[in-house]
């Protein structure tokens, strides 16, 4: 089964989508199986991270901002703005697809795990995800 | 089909689980299909790496320890210990889920590939994985 | 369904394989489902990246070359050449497996997304991928 999910972001950072995905799984009636999601962009990515304390997400963003900074003189691909090439590197270092087992009608995440879209661009973006659900 | 796998770790480093996973695949009787595994934690992760020479694993750990050190003044999420926030960054940079084709009743890994749990915390931890096997 | 795909590389860098994969999906007659690919090596990896402007790929390679350089005195695993251990780190930081939804008989990639083998070794290598396609 194929489902789609759209998200509006408002700058760099992690946006939790766990509840929305759980609702899609419930609506599909999948009791046991596998849910694969893919973000259809190369300047935003996916990650499974701690969803309890927002400071963990802020530190993740801060670490990434230092490891993959803008205005790096290494870059030649600069015509789409200073945040574009860093966003491709960040996407390469994180995930574009995730596959999550479904048990008892729910994504079988651990207690502290949440699913996040990681936006790497500065300006707001409309992000599109595609989901595959199978038994 | 859903299976579970538990692992006790004893500090930072890579723990090979290839043989245990091959046994689970064999026991399930899956001849051809896909095996997806997910680690249900945000301070340990998964990787497929060389399983021949232990020095490769030691170097991977050493590289990560330098790239994502403890006691980084960047971090504000510090109440769970100096190894907690680095473990989230390490998990973001590696993998939480892996999907591996099954052929002739075995995970179709390359000659030198092994599947590893990468523990990012200093103290021993009990780690839980969930597997989905499908045709 | 299991398919195989072979590729000859000629040094470090990203090699696009999107068209070849789309042809395999078409030939299999899969209309809706999931395509999982795994590269059966630990010194090359997979990534989904921008496929429009080659400068983005060159910058990705340049960033990685600086972040994970050869001749790093950290390494003890050096008997297979100065590019071997960096290739394992690069593989750990990127992806060994990718799962991509199939819609209307095609991999449901975004407009600017392409699938790439990222070769991390200096000399030419023969690389082998295995694909699983399911409904």
Descriptive terms for the model:
homotrimer; 135 residues; alpha+beta; Jelly Rolls; five-stranded antiparallel sheet; three-stranded antiparallel sheet; 26% helix
Structure write-up:
- The structure is a homotrimer of 135-residue chains.
- The first copy, chain A, is 26% helix and 39% strand.
- Chain A has 135 residues and is of the alpha+beta class.
- Chain A has a single domain, classed as YjbQ-like (Jelly Rolls, Sandwich), CATH 2.60.120.
- In chain A, the strands form 2 sheets. In chain A, strands 1-8-3-5-6 form a 5-stranded antiparallel sheet, covered by helices on one side.
- The first copy, chain A, is elongated.
- The termini of chain A are close together.
- The mean pLDDT of chain A is 97.
- The interface between A and B is medium-sized, with 35 and 29 residues.
Can you tell me the residue ranges of chain A where pLDDT is under 50 for at least 5 consecutive residues? Answer: none
Strand content of chain A is 35-45%
How many discrete structural domains of chain A?
1
Number of strands of chain A: 8
The portion of residues assigned to helices of chain A is: 25-40%
Multimeric state: homotrimer
Given helix and strand content, the structural type of chain A is alpha+beta
Q: Please state the average pLDDT score of chain A.
A: 97
Give the name of the CATH superfamily of chain A: YjbQ-like
As laid out across the biggest beta sheet of chain A, the strand order is 1-8-3-5-6
CATH domain class name of chain A = Mainly Beta
Please state the CA-atom Rg of chain A, rounded to the nearest Å: 16 Å
Q: Please state the second-level CATH architecture of chain A.
A: Sandwich
State the order of secondary-structure elements of chain A, H for helix, E for strand: EEHEEHHEEEE
User: What does the overall shape of chain A look like?
Assistant: elongated
Looking at the structure, the CATH topology of chain A is Jelly Rolls
State the major sheet of chain A. 5 strands, antiparallel
